[in-house]
Write a structure and sequence with these properties.
By secondary structure, the protein is of the alpha/beta class. The protein folds into 2 domains: 7-260, Spore Coat Polysaccharide Biosynthesis Protein SpsA, Chain A (Alpha-Beta Complex); 262-298, no CATH class. 36% of the residues lie in helices and 23% in strands. The strands form 3 sheets. It has a 9-stranded mixed β-sheet. The mean pLDDT is 93. The structure holds uridine 5'-triphosphate.
C-alpha cells in the first residue's frame, strides 16, 4: 500500500555546544546561511515533500524559533507603507498557517532518539519524517522529496538518507551494514551509531533525513542508552531490523553540508553564496583574491 507522509519532526532541542558562544543565546537553527536561518531550509524541504504538519521538539532558550514563523505585523506594515513588495513577499513566505506547527518540549537533552520520542503523541499511527536541520542538502529535487517518492514505491518500512563517507570519518556517524546494494536503495541488515575507529561495517553513513514507522517510537520507550550515553535514534531503528522489518538506506542525489560543524557551516556559506545570482560575481572575485594572496604568501 502506498502511504503518504504528512508529518515531520524537527528535533531542535540540542545544546549546540560546537557553536558556543553564539549558541548561548541564539538557537543553532537560527544561524543564517547567507540570509536565511537553517530552519527555513529545512521547512522549505519538508513543504516540497508534501509535509503539512510540522512538529518541533524544542527546549529552553529556543523561543526565537517559535517567533520566527509568526506573522510580523509591524514589520509587514512598515514594508507595505514604503512599497517594498519584494521584501514583503519574502517575509510572508516565512509565515506558517495557524495550527500547522506544533511545539513539544524536551526537558533534558538526553539524545536524538529521546527528542523524537517526545513527539510521539503528535505523530499517531502513521509513518513520519525526521529532519535534522544541521544537515543542509543542496539538490535539484529536495532530499526529502526524493525519499518520499522512493518510500511510496517500496510501500513501507523505515528509510534513512545515506551517503558514502571517508573510512576515517565513519566513527562520527551512524553507519549501515549492507545486506543488498541496489544502487539508490540499500537493504540494511544492521546499524551502528558512532562505531569505534576501524570497526565500521561499511562507509555508508546515515544523514539527517528519515522516514520512520511509529514502531520506532515504541522501541524508544525503553530508553536504552547507546553511544555517548545518549538515547540514540539509530538503535531504535536497528531494533526494527532484528524484528524482521525492512530498513532501507537511500542514496540521495545532492550535496550535503554538515552545518553542525564550523568547517561545514563555512563551506555551506560559500556554496550557497556562490549559487546566488546577486552575490555570485562579487564573492567569486573575493575568493580568487584570497586564494591568490594565500599562494603568494606560501
Ligand atoms: P547534535 O549531535 O548535533 O547535538 O544533535 P547538538 O546539541 O545540536 O550540537 P553540539 O554537538 O552540542 O554542537 C543532532 C540533532 O539532534 C537534536 C539537535 O538539536 C540536532 O538537531 N537533539 C540532540 C535534540 O533535539 N535533543 C537532544 O537531546 C540531542
Amino acid at each position: 500500500m502506498k502511504r503518504r507522509v504528512t508529518k515531520a519532526v524537527f528535533p531542535v532541542a540540542g545544546l549546540g555546544t560546537r557553536f558556543l558562544p553564539a549558541t548561548k543565546s541564539i538557537p543553532k537553527e537560527m544561524m543564517t546561511l547567507v540570509d536565511r536561518p537553517l530552519i527555513q531550509y529545512a521547512i522549505d524541504e519538508a513543504r516540497a515533500a508534501g509535509i503539512t504538519d510540522f512538529i518541533f521538539v524544542t527546549a529552553r532558550g529556543k523561543s526565537a524559533l517559535e517567533d520566527y514563523f509568526d506573522h510580523a505585523p509591524e514589520l509587514e506594515g512598515a514594508l507595505r507603507r514604503v512599497g517594498k513588495t519584494e521584501l514583503l513577499e519574502m517575509l510572508r513566505a516565512t509565515n506558517m498557517d495557524s495550527g500547522a506547527i506544533a511545539y513539544v518540549r524536551q526537558n533534558r537533552p538526553l539524545g536524538l532518539g529521546h527528542a523524537v520520542w517526545c513527539a510521539r503523541r503528535l505523530i499517531g499511527n502513521e509513518p513520519f519524517a525526521v529532519i535534522l536541520t544541521d544537515d543542509v542538502i543542496a539538490a535539484e529535487t529536495p532530499c526529502l522529496e526524493q525519499m518520499v517518492d522512493a518510500y511510496a514505491e517500496i510501500g513501507g518500512g523505515n528509510m534513512v538518507a545515506a551517503m558514502e563517507v571517508a573510512p576515517a570519518r565513519a566513527s562520527a556517524y551512524g553507519v549501515l551494514a549492507i545486506d543488498k546494494d541496489m544502487g539508490s536503495l540499500v537493504a540494511v541488515r544492521g546499524m551502528v551509531e558512532k562505531p569505534a575507529p576501524g570497526t565500521a561495517p561499511s562507509n555508508l553513513a546515515v544523514i539527517g533525513r528519515y522516514i520512520l514507522t511509529p514502531r520506532v517510537l515504541n522501541n524508544l520507550t525503553r530508553m536504552k542508552q547507546g553511544a555517548g550515553g545518549e538515547i540514540q535514534l539509530t538503535d531504535a531503528i536497528a531494533e526494527e531490523i532484528e524484528r524482521g522489518e525492512p530498513v532501507w538506506g537511500f542514496r540521495f542525489r545532492g550535496q550535503r553540508f554538515d552545518c553542525g560543524s564550523k568547517a561545514g557551516f563555512l563551506q555551506a556559506t560559500v556554496a550557497f553564496g556562490l549559487a546566488r545570482e546577486d552575490l555570485h560575481d562579487e564573492l567569486r572575485r573575493y575568493l580568487h583574491t584570497v586564494v591568490a594572496l594565500q599562494k603568494a604568501a606560501e
